[in-house]
Amino acid sequence: LLPQVCAQLCRRPCYCPWVPPRCPRGSPLVLDGCGCCKICARRLGEPCDFLHVCDQSQGLICYYSSASAGTGGTCNFEDDEEGCEVNGRVYRDGEVFQPSCKIQCRCFDGSFNCIPLCQEDVRLPTPDCPYPRRVEVPGKCCLEWICEAQDRHLLRDAWAAARAVSPVLRQPCQEWGTEWSACSATCGLGFAIRVSNQNRYCRLETQRRLCMLRPCPALPAVFP
Questions:
Q1: Which residue of 64, 71, 94, 120 is most buried, as measured by CB atoms within 10 A?
Q2: Does the global pTM surpass 0.70?
Q3: In this structure, is residue 170 part of a structural domain?
Q4: Domain assignment present for 192
Q5: Per residue in 103-121, pLDDT tens?
Q6: Which domain holds residue 109?
Q7: Based on the domain organization, do 57 and 93 belong to the same domain?
Q8: Does residue 190 fall inside a structural domain?
Q9: How do residues 171-222 score in pLDDT, each as one tens digit?
């Protein structure tokens, strides 16, 4: 059957466009089923046939329907293993990946969970840093805090007032903090918040951490 299909669909010599097609993100350029012209590989859940092949680098093959032989198929995993599609790329179950330098994710049972790699603390104004601001630093992924004084005299007066009220203590920092709040999400990833001075400068600041009470139920996959 395959030689007959090749004889009907594949023509020699090949006549291909001068400019290869521009593929969507996550879809590589591959040879068509005739091994003739460059085409965009079909991704998970997309229609496929003899000419329009699936992305084999992602472990996808074309599954044909049980109807007539002329009907097309759908790209799916060769071993029916569940995976995750993110930004056009398919990740296998259990695979760890980073969509960006700020988060790290793990594919699990058809869905994925992510954790931030950057600290998500909130810095409160203090006499020595009345105008904290987060900025991008060249060569670094995460934003960093800097202190900007809109008025140097105001900063100097604030320091003088702070020293007049109470001298600077040279004793070790006495740790203090509230309890962690309830998780912000009933399923999936959420945040818990507390106020604490357990940091390098012994300052009160709002701190966040990830929490998950239970995984969210996976939505059924929808294929065209």
A1: 64
A2: no
A3: no
A4: yes
A5: 888 887 777 788 888 877 7
A6: 84-116
A7: no
A8: yes
A9: 567 777 788 888 888 888 888 888 888 877 787 778 888 888 888 876 655 5
